[in-house]
């Protein structure tokens, strides 16, 4: 009986050890922006805090509203993922900025911006409506 319990305990220990580093890696935030997300801050200073609703996780277009002036924007995605700021809604219009890297933060003028698109690869989506 001890022999049957021992391998299960060892296997459980191995799983717990393997899960530990992955969890630690996935919790690396940058100025409060969670690992794997793109964040828009209240103003041009990353210490101003992330806007309410300003954390974007899913690939695709996200429409913005009432965004004017300079804001700090962080790309804390991984695996070469980018974010593009577009002048039109739903990822259309001109591409004003592409946010590469992780983590990467920059001050962006959001006055002409109506959507942000998250994605991967070399096909940036902002295109004429």
Descriptive overview:
- With 129 residues, the protein is of the alpha+beta class.
- It has a domain of 89 residues: Gamma-B Crystallin, domain 1, CATH 2.60.20.
- Helix content is 19%, strand content 33%.
- It is built from one helix and eight strands, in the order H-E-E-E-E-E-E-E-E.
- Strand 5 and strand 6 form a beta hairpin.
- The N terminus is likely disordered.
Please identify the top-level CATH class of the domain at 31-119. Answer: Mainly Beta
Strand tally, please? 8
The portion of residues assigned to helices is 10-25%
- Rg over alpha carbons: 20 Å
| Gap between N and C termini | 69 Å
Order of helices and strands: HEEEEEEEE
Biggest β-sheet, characterized?
4 strands, antiparallel
Q: What assembly state would you assign to the polypeptide chains in this entry?
A: single chain
